[in-house]
Structures are given as structure tokens and as C-alpha cells.
Specification:
This protein is an alpha/beta fold. Helix content is 29%, strand content 25%.
Length: 261
């Protein structure tokens, strides 16, 4: 089984984020990047499937600060191949990143055909979870998203994926292989790998690189960031106490004074 995992680096929101001088991007001078959490779960699910069915896991990531460490960490966990796409200008939008991933998978030897392409459902800069469905669109493959469990029937050449819906509803979907899956959570927490093992991998393994492919001008437009700014504090919350009736009366007074009633 040939499994590809698409990995993204995202800003560590534990750190204070600052807007760059251009007013359109984040200041990267002190920005710390980490692996997107759901992409880490996608890698874990891929390694679980490899342990069950055999095969190979390849991790593909866009060039970004700290991405080398993330790729060596993936190799130390059990991935067989790590590829870094280099040469992108700035930080590509979600739509552009999906096209870059798709064209790279088509153009780099040994990546395709793949039985499964896994990536995270969301990222902090992709809350709509568009990477996986856009990749499936570009590659003309079936897609299942918000996945929490994956089962592969190699004989029947199908994948069954469980996904979650609101109100604790769970559904199972079947798709023919190859397919693209957006992983929300792996069956097990992402495995821990000792730092010593990662350092040993850095000495023994080598990351592959591929240039950013030329994206054909097919009329598809990409969103452009016009302005970025930090939220401005407009006031403070007012805590309303008292009984339920007193609180309700106070809320009505506030809404009436604001012309909302």
C-alpha cells in the first residue's frame, strides 16, 4: 500500500502573533512554526495502516521554517520517505497550496499512483478544511472528510471511513481506492519519538526536495489578503447578577437602550 501524507507548518499560537510592516502578513522574524495538529494525526493514521497492511508512507510538505525538523521527526516515527517542496514565494494560500501539492504528486517519480492520500481536516489558517477536498478535485479522486477511523479492504480495493457529524451522529462511508481522506483524529494519539532517535535520523537519512511546479493559468482566481490587523479592544464585558428574572430584566433594558427592542 502506497500512502501519501500532506503536511503543513502553521504558526504556534502559543506565541504572540504580530502583523508585518506590509500590513498583509504575519511578522516571521520571531514566528515559531509547528506541525499542524490534524496533519500529525494524518501521519499517525498512515503509520497505523502501514503496520496493518504493509507498504510505504511518504510525507510531503511545503518549505517553511522548522519543516526539516518536522520531516525528520516523521521519518523517525516510521515514514519511509520525506519530500520538501521548495521555492514557493511567501506563504501560499490554501487553494494555491492544494494545486502545488497536486502538481507535485503528479510530477515527482514514485509518488503516484498512491492508494491513499491523507491530510488533516483543518488548520488554524484553513478552518474550512479545504486542502483535502481541493486536492481530490485536482486529482479527480473521491474524498471523505472529518475522518476518525479508517479501514482498508485491499481485496475489494475500497476504503471505509467513519466520520463525525453534529449531535454525536457517526456515519460510515465507502469509497474506491485511490482516495483522499481528511483526518480529524487518528485512532490513537500521535506517537512520541525520542529526541535521540530524531537526531540519529538527521545523521543517517536525507530529505528529498522538489521545486515548486509551474501552475498553469487556467482562470482560477486565488484570494488575496488586502489587510491584516490585530483585534482592537472596544470595551469590557458587563457581568449581570441577580435572579434569573432580574438578569432577564437587565438584559431587556440594555437591548432597549441600544435600540434592539
Amino acid at each position: 500500500m502506497n500512502i501519501l501524507v500532506l503536511m503543513r507548518m502553521v504558526p504556534d499560537v502559543v506565541e504572540e502573533l504580530e502583523v508585518a510592516a506590509d500590513g498583509k502578513s504575519l511578522d516571521t522574524e520571531f514566528l515559531r512554526m509547528i506541525v499542524n495538529e490534524s496533519d500529525d494525526h494524518a501521519l499517525e493514521e498512515a503509520l497505523i495502516l502501514k503496520e496493518r497492511h504493509g507498504g510505504k508512507v511518504t510525507v510531503v510538505a511545503l518549505e517553511a521554517p522548522e519543516v526539516d525538523d518536522a520531516l525528520f521527526n516523521a521519518l523517525a516515527k516510521g515514514a519511509d520517505r520525506a519530500l520538501k517542496i521548495v521555492g514557493a514565494e511567501g506563504r501560499p494560500s490554501t487553494a494555491l497550496a492544494a494545486k502545488i501539492f497536486s502538481e507535485t504528486m503528479r510530477g515527482v517519480a514514485g509518488l503516484m499512483p498512491a492508494d491513499l492520500i491523507l491530510t488533516g481536516t483543518q488548520a488554524i489558517d484553513d478552518l474550512d478544511g479545504l486542502i483535502a477536498p481541493l486536492v481530490s478535485h485536482h486529482l479527480d479522486l473521491p474524498f471523505i472528510g472529518i475522518v476518525t477511523t479508517v479501514a482498508v479492504d485491499s481485496a475489494a480495493n475500497v476504503v471505509t471511513a467513519a466520520r463525525e457529524f453534529p449531535n454525536s451522529v457517526r456515519g460510515e462511508f465507502e469509497a474506491p481506492l485511490p482516495a483522499v481522506l481528511g483526518i480529524q483524529a487518528a485512532e490513537k494519539p500521535p506517537r512520541y519519538v525520542p529526541v535521540a532517535k530524531v537526531r540519529a535520523m538527521m545523521k543517517s537519512a536525507k530529505l528529498e526536495t522538489a521545486p515548486v511546479p509551474e501552475i498553469a493559468a487556467d482562470g482560477e482566481s486565488f484570494a488575496e489578503v488586502l489587510q491584516m490587523a490585530k483585534p482592537v479592544s472596544a470595551g469590557h464585558a458587563e457581568m449581570i447578577g441577580g435572579t434569573a428574572e432580574e438578569a432577564a430584566e437587565k438584559v431587556c433594558e440594555i437591548l432597549a437602550a441600544a435600540g434592539r427592542l
